[in-house]
Amino acid sequence: MVFKKAQTLFDKLWAAHRIADGGDGADLIAIDRVCLHERTGAVALRSLRDAGHDVQNPKRVFAIMDHIVSFRENRGPDESRSPGGGVFITQTRKLALEAGVNFIDTNDLRQGIVHVIAPELGIAIPGVSLICPDSHTCSLGALGALAWGVGSSESEHAMATGCLRVTKPKQMRVTVNGALGEGVSAKDLALYIIHKFGAKGGQRCAIEYCGSAISELTIEERLTLCNMAVEFSAFTALIAPDEKTISFVLGKPYAPNADEIADTREDWRSLFTDEDAIFDYEIEVNAADVQPIVSWGTSPEQALPIGDAIPIGADQKVLDYMGLSGGQRVEGLEISGAFIGSCTNGRLSDLRSAAAFLQGRKVADGVRAVCVPGSQSVRRQAEEEGLDAIFREAGFEWGAPGCAMCFFAGGQTFAPGERVVSSTNRNFEGRQGPGVRTHLASPATVAASAVKGAISRADKINVGVDE
Amino acid sequence: MRQTFTRFSGVAAPLMIDNVDTDQIIPSREMKTTSRNGLAEGLFAGWRYVSEGNRIPDKEFILNREGYREAKILVSGENFGCGSSREHAVWALEEYGIRAIIAQSFGEIFYNNCTRNGVLPIRLHSSEIAGIVASSSPQLVTIDLPMQKVLVNDREYHFEIGAYAKRLLLEGLDPISMTKKELPVIRTFQEADKLKRPWLYR
Ligand code: SF4
């Protein structure tokens, strides 16, 4: 019998894609699929062409419009939310069509945020290696894909050569056992982990999430959890594919077809961490400890259970930016903005959880509330279920799919100093606009806060609806 | 193909500040085009010009001072190139004509962006850096990449660089051309893979 070293899921994915030694401690890793978006896609395609490099296999490249397209409901195809941004859209379109890559235009039925549509279309599936010049590509590890965010040049390298030169990162296992409480979401779990172990806690590792709580999560919830891994300083995140993953993937346009699925299923079944495999780091979380969380500062680690007080002695610069002081409670802080959407929480289940709360309620006076579905497919399904009507009747704006208010691109946003509760993933200074004070939270918390006009928990709200 | 590196000399401009981040190297408002070119004008725009609009050079800024305008080498402190991963920072430096940056330490992503865009990042100790920028007049500094040495007047300082990065810079290769030398093994891998996962290739 041949002794085979116990491997982690990440080891298996790495080995399956390792082409050769890359020198200086790096490996040449085969990249199965590359996603581009209009913010950097044109630059990448143009500089490839200028350097005389062809896209090696255009069928494996997907160019998508999401980052700076307008989120106005009836937007035109070139309409940008960023001043002068139209050229990025038209150039990306032109260069993508010339290069012959798969192209998903602004108002295509398949359009949406890259990390939302990659699972929807079967671009991200178990065992596939995938890169995109966007740091939240780690979301796709939720399906057992080896996926991570890269710089623009690396996306060029992958397109021209079919591989990347990468140093294998260290590995961490995050085991989450137990059950999440009622009203506690995957977003709360993600924020809890970052809050508890720090924004650097992921140590540049490939992280595998496992444990009973992770098995219980839906695919959409897993995507939310893995999305936030980069805010935890992870290289990427992974969840071993299970039956849920496989049934999610079946029948998707870019996944293997019905004839091929039998073999593929066998491969996918081998994608798990062997029992005796060793990780560089291990951390454990008890799901029952997680409560609805909101961030108060300018790093996702500066977060706390909604009822708690900001630590005394917290960084003064951060407090000044956020207009807060140590010892203050975040619950009850007046807000003037609420945003639901993004690759973190712009999927159907996110919209449903917010709508469940909003039904029959109204957004408080003085709050601008915006909901932007993560993709056209999410938008269509939400509209079929009548969720858009609930959002609109509550006083939310209903936008066209894209990154929208997740990051400031120079165009319309909230005003400096405004306090915003947002279902996004970054609360850095200026992320949603100069001086804008972002509080990260789950879609349910955002909905509850929008109704109350102040940060509040969805399960504790107490506003005047037929009480 | 880029310029190759062997031994070259140029004026070294001291920018003795720690934590020069990529937003200072090129402010995001200067990244206006969908091209890698045309960025040199925006290099250090916040410091280089009296005001953004008029583009009148600020005489105080080192690259505007007599004798430093044609500098080929930048000397700085700790953590040069920290902050956002924007590669535009290196593209702007390269287009301006900066061939090497000497600093105590670099932002990790920036360091790698340098080596793959034909700019040589050199880590030296603060005492060695002090020796290089000791003079108040423009200094001619020679850099010998094959020997991994910085030469100033009669002193020389050794620096470390990885073999892969060194080869990229020495041969003036970009990483894509370098990896393309491996195309035969990549193709072999893909041929075998195509049999296993045909759906990936259609
Ligand atoms: S929604 Fe936000 S975090 Fe996600 S890809 Fe778009 S900009 Fe990035």
From TrEMBL, chain A:
Matching Gene3D superfamilies, A to Z?
A: Aconitase, domain 3
Name one process (GO BP) from the record. Answer: L-leucine biosynthetic process
Question: What is its cofactor?
Answer: [4Fe-4S] cluster
**Family matches, as InterPro entries:** Acnase/IPM_dHydase_lsu_aba_1/3, Acoase/IPM_deHydtase_lsu_aba, Aconitase_4Fe-4S_BS, Aconitase_4Fe-4S_dom, IPM_dehydratase_rel_enz
Which enzyme class? lyase
Q: Which UniProt keywords apply?
A: 4Fe-4S, Amino-acid biosynthesis, Branched-chain amino acid biosynthesis, Iron, Iron-sulfur, Leucine biosynthesis, Lyase, Metal-binding
Reactions accelerated catalytically? (2R,3S)-3-isopropylmalate = (2S)-2-isopropylmalate
For this protein, the Enzyme Commission number is: 4.2.1.33
Q: Where is the Aconitase/3-isopropylmalate dehydratase large subunit alpha/beta/alpha domain?
A: 11-453
A molecular function GO annotation: 3-isopropylmalate dehydratase activity
Q: In which pathway does it act?
A: Amino-acid biosynthesis; L-leucine biosynthesis; L-leucine from 3-methyl-2-oxobutanoate: step 2/4
Question: Tell me, how does this one assemble?
Answer: Heterodimer of LeuC and LeuD.
According to its UniProt entry, the function of this protein is described as:
Catalyzes the isomerization between 2-isopropylmalate and 3-isopropylmalate, via the formation of 2-isopropylmaleate.
Write the protein's name: 3-isopropylmalate dehydratase
From TrEMBL, chain B:
Catalytic reaction list: (2R,3S)-3-isopropylmalate = (2S)-2-isopropylmalate
EC number(s) in its UniProt entry?
4.2.1.33
Is Transferase there in the keyword field? no
Taxonomically, which superkingdom? Bacteria
Pathway this chain belongs to: Amino-acid biosynthesis; L-leucine biosynthesis; L-leucine from 3-methyl-2-oxobutanoate: step 2/4
Q: Which CDD domains match?
A: IPMI_Swivel
A biological process from GO: L-leucine biosynthetic process
Cellular component terms (Gene Ontology): 3-isopropylmalate dehydratase complex
Q: Where is the Aconitase A/isopropylmalate dehydratase small subunit swivel domain?
A: 3-125
- For this UniProt record, give its keywords in alphabetical order, as a comma-separated list: Amino-acid biosynthesis, Branched-chain amino acid biosynthesis, Leucine biosynthesis, Lyase
Checking Gene3D superfamilies in the record gives: Aconitase, domain 4
Top-level EC class, please? lyase
Pfam families given in the database record: Aconitase_C
Q: Which GO terms describe its molecular function?
A: 3-isopropylmalate dehydratase activity
Family of this protein: Belongs to the LeuD family. LeuD type 1 subfamily.
Q: How does it assemble?
A: Heterodimer of LeuC and LeuD.
Cross-referenced PANTHER family: 3-ISOPROPYLMALATE DEHYDRATASE SMALL SUBUNIT, 3-ISOPROPYLMALATE DEHYDRATASE SMALL SUBUNIT 2-RELATED-RELATED
Q: What does this protein do?
A: Catalyzes the isomerization between 2-isopropylmalate and 3-isopropylmalate, via the formation of 2-isopropylmaleate.
- Identify this protein by name: 3-isopropylmalate dehydratase small subunit
Q: Which gene encodes it?
A: leuD
